[in-house]
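To whoever picks this up:

The parser on our side crashed when reading a file containing two proteins. I've narrowed it down to the boundary between the first structure block and the second sequence. Both blocks are reproduced below exactly, byte for byte. First block:
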Amino acid sequence: MEALVPAFLLAALTQLCDKPAMLTAILADRYGRPLTVAITAGIAHATLNLAAALGGSLIGPMMTPNARALLLAMALIFGALGAAGSNRVKDRLDGWKLGAFFTPLLGVLILAFGESTPFFTLALSTGGQPWFAAAGASIGTFGVAFVAALLGERTWAAMPWRWLRILSGIGFLIAGCWIGVNALRLT
């Protein structure tokens, strides 16, 4: 149960100013079905989080506690680096004619595959509670996708995400360095 809340918070913070949320807002406006788009974006995120949790449950028993902490530190540092990027979506999937269910499902699945949230889920899953980590991350990502879909592209893009990206990036970097230094027993 202790992996549920950190996974939720990490997922929500990273998704608030990340590309999958922006794509969800774009597709919700295009199809005019925000609830359908939000649900399918949530399914895409849940699929990735479940795969990451499965991976964490497989490698977790082979890792020492320090290795698990170091993996979490690396995930946080990579999350900080990801926060420095842009949330602009380069491909709006205009050529995709798969409808209001499959376009967001596949588009968000592909876009979120390289994002920080599955890496956080993997790192938290190695601690022994993979399904709670997957559940927390999935709830966090669905919540953000739901809000993005309801607000739509114009309102979502107008939000001051830059400051949240900077603050969350700094927070991730500090936490990652702290956990990493402790995992390497340098303190």
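<<boundary where parser fails>>
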Amino acid sequence: MPQLPAPVDEALLAPLDDRADDCADGVPPVVRPRLGAVLRRVSVSLLVACVVPAALFYTCFRLTDVWVAMAAALGWSYGAIAWRVVTRRRPSGLLYLTAAVMTVRTLVSVALDSTYLYFLQPIVTDAAIATLFLASLATARPVVARLAGDFYPLDDELALRPGVRRLFRRLTLLWGAIGAAKAAGTLWLLESQPLDTFVLVKTVTAPTLNGLTVAATIAAVVVVARREGLLERVVQPVPSGA
């Protein structure tokens, strides 16, 4: 005797019915990521693109020499890009940028057989990137607006909101100023300290400064995102006895 289908709870189908009604009206449902998902995405991007290469470089530098450290950090960046491509996941713009900068640093240092240039180039790069960030404030799309899509799904409607545009400009100014200050401080450190001290201090201070800047960035983003309704609010169920 054929089995009858099990009854379906209509309450479970209500959200699907609402979404179907939205699609029937020609308006696709808007899905906003939760804050936790955005933070995980940012954390993973920074970990893969910045933290792991720096840790690899310092470890190999202490155990072997600077040339092995260069190869290890660069190899990690290319391996991370290749892994994401093979697994059909788009590498972040930050990962591409880090790999490109490290490639130029390594090639110049090897070509000129100078480890000093390897450490000098990031200073020049920080200064150049800071200049790029600050100069982009004169354009319609500052640098942060171009990179924001790596961390949050943006469309033209969101990107053109006045509050979001102000946020992008302020964050571009923040990162440009931090980059300029970091370039100046690192240059002083390179010229005044032994190489071992320089590598140790830079390995500690650079991630710390970047982490503080990221924390300030996230705090500003959360404030604006809540105001603009871009983060899903989690409503806690009220106990029946309350």
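After patching the parser it read the second block fine. Residues 195-228 form the longest helix (34 residues). Residues 158 and 170 are 17 Å apart (CA to CA).
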